[in-house]
Specification:
Two copies of one chain form a homodimer. By secondary structure, chain A is an alpha/beta fold. Chain A folds into two domains: 244 residues, Type I PLP-dependent aspartate aminotransferase-like (Major domain) (Aspartate Aminotransferase, domain 2); 119 residues, Alpha-Beta Complex (Aspartate Aminotransferase, domain 1), CATH 3.90.1150. In chain A, the strands form three sheets. Chain A has a seven-stranded mixed sheet with strand order 1-9-8-7-4-2-3, sandwiched between helices. In chain A, strands 10-12-11 form a three-stranded antiparallel sheet, covered by helices on one side. In chain A, a hairpin with an 8-residue loop joins β11 and β12. Chain A is globular. Chain A starts with 9 loop residues before the first helix and ends with a helix. Chains A and B meet through α3, α4, α9 and β11 of A and α3, α4, α9 and β11 of B.
């Protein structure tokens, strides 16, 4: 139940065991083109997709250095580790970064974003971390940003690293120019492939203004793809096979059904764990449907709790990040998550708390969760 | 018989099928520390190793952007696609690049390098592509460069992407500050992990002058490793398991024996294929022991030749790169290469040529190769 890397279905793991092929061959073209096209389906984009052999941070960095030049004005909400990291990358790229900072667990409101746009008519781009994995918060107004970026045709970039494939993303419809994720999150593939999707407008800009770097230079990827459907550098072939298999599983389940499953499971986790006596870290209107962060009870020690949970019940959850270390723990609700995972997790957390001397209402918690899961 | 990605032993492939672990756990520390320490053994370095989740080009770029600042003077021999690419990256990093250009198939002589050092007393670094995969040439004076870099304590960086693990590299002894490779070459692991090894002097510089980028920022990797033996970003876990297994196989065989095997096999390939009537592309004193590039015979069409070889005999070789497309083909001699591969390849190439109407002396070629392979 980690918020990434998540459990990988055996079918996806097995796909890695494919004899080595030449990445300059027709076999590769068949594999890569398929992965690219299916990625676009999940992002609901008619643009271009590049499957980078890197972690999600690599794809996010590509989304920064290919679009931002010295002095560009950028608006970004910041409320945790990953949005802070993105703001840092924007700053390094030379941007004039306007940070909309809120406390961890809260999101900048749409009104605050609108105000920033009102005050900065010359903004070049809006960047946001859709799902702040470090705190379990999620921005829920992605569909409304277009009203602001359309004013001066500024760019709209969504870092969707831990959430694409688990929540709805309509790139074309919502006017998003660039978005990316990591395969090891809601796609339930192994880590190491990170897709970035770019619409025609952003692609044109990137091709006309390529960065002076090599590995994350997207115009180079576009050129190779157009010429031969190859990648410029040797890709992580076994991971690409796994990634394509994971995409097949997503599309076989159906995007809508998959997103509904994530929502129902996270709803059951929030309800069940609240009934046990744990409080969610994120404010109610900002709660993520793929990462459930919970405050530790008074005196509940992080390492002891998580070790007991892992050793006695084989349930892995993550600790807090940065300042939140020891204060919260995080339950992933992504990828393969289903009834069984939710019930087992609530049961194991309840039992662990009882073993550590807390009184909980586990049975009620399970009933509450079961009720929520009925519609699955 | 590709010059990468090379065949991956089943034992290494199987290592990928390990259930997903938390990359912030003791399980990960055990895996990663082991991979790091064994990487250092292969590079014969007492420095620090970072296993990047990226292709070899990513590791090479890390070797540039962490060491080179605007205006730094750098000497680099250029004789093909990959050395050209490295010179490009140095230029992008703002370096004053002194290119020692030679024709493809030839190397700048040690005397030419010495002259460049004589004429540029303020040089900051010497970079070289040890093995130019695009042309099958190899620099054979790596051990002598220290005499030049020691004059003003300049840095010495070796791009060993296609050759480390197949040829001798004594980082410490030869005074090399930074070196890197890709797992899918002479290590015989799948592509996607690329180690970079940095000695104490270069590490100190990198920590004091970190680049304004995220994914290839080595000081960040050093910091995480010192604090917790973690990596800053989610690593490509299945590939790390495979990589570690490949390192085990290298060390079980023994580095010396492995290098000797590569040398004997390439010697047999050069002798055998020359006897068939094919001429090596590289000049004799510049021939690589891990990539054998051969000129096409007059009228021999690249695609037909390679397709016949692949379809009738299941032997994969690579075409030429850039300007050399259609003029040469390249046989990898790396990783698992042994007697059987050499004999089968010579036999299959001879038969393909005969099927295409050329007269060859295949039987003699096999005898010549067999003689060379006897000492294995």
């Amino acid at each position: 139940m980690l918020p990434g890397p998540t459990n990988v279905p055996e079918r996806v793991m097995r796909a890695m065991i494919t004899p080595t092929i030449n990445h300059r061959s027709d076999d590769f073209v068949e594999l890569y083109e398929d992965a690219v096209e299916k990625t676009k389906q999940v992002f609901q984009s008619s643009g271009d997709a590049v499957c980078l052999s890197a972690s999600g941070t690599g794809a996010v960095e590509a989304g920064v250095i290919n679009l931002i030049k010295k002095g560009d004005k950028v608006i970004i909400p910041v409320n945790g580790e990953f949005s802070g990291r993105l703001a840092q990358m924007l700053d390094w790229a030379g941007a004039n970064v306007i940070k909309l900072e809120t406390k961890p667990g809260q999101n900048a409101s749409f009104e605050a974003v609108k105000e920033a746009f009102d005050n900065n008519k010359d903004v070049k781009a809006f960047y946001c971390v859709w799902n702040e994995t470090s705190t379990g918060t999620m921005i829920n107004y992605l569909d409304k940003i277009k009203n602001l970026t359309s004013r001066n045709d500024s760019y709209y970039v969504v870092d969707g690293v831990s959430i694409v494939g688990g929540e709805e993303l309509q790139m074309d419809r919502w006017g998003i120019d660039v978005a990316m994720t990591g395969a090891q999150k809601a796609f339930a593939a192994p880590p190491g492939i990170s897709p970035i999707v770019v619409n025609a407008k952003a692609k044109k800009y990137m091709n006309e203004n390529p960065p002076k770097t090599m590995y994350f230079n997207l115009s180079r990827y576009f050129k190779y793809y157009e010429e031969s459907k190859h990648t410029p550098f040797t890709p992580a072939l076994p991971l690409l096979y796994a990634y394509r298999e994971a995409l097949d599983m997503i599309l076989e389940e159906g995007l809508d059904k998959r997103i509904r499953r994530h929502r129902i499971c996270s709803d059951a986790l929030y309800s069940g764990l609240s009934t046990i006596g744990l409080t969610p870290f994120a404010k109610e209107d900002a709660r993520s449907t793929v990462v459930v962060a919970l405050n530790y009870l008074d005196g509940l020690e992080d390492k002891t709790f998580r070790n007991t949970l892992a050793q006695k019940f084989r349930v892995l959850v993550a600790g807090g990040f940065g300042n939140l270390k020891g204060k919260v723990f995080r339950v992933g609700c992504m990828g393969e998550v289903h009834r069984y995972h939710v019930m087992r997790t609530i049961s194991a957390i309840g039992s662990t708390l009882e073993m550590m001397g807390y009184r909980t209402s586990s049975m009620n918690a399970l009933k509450v969760a079961e009720e929520k899961l009925k519609v699955l």
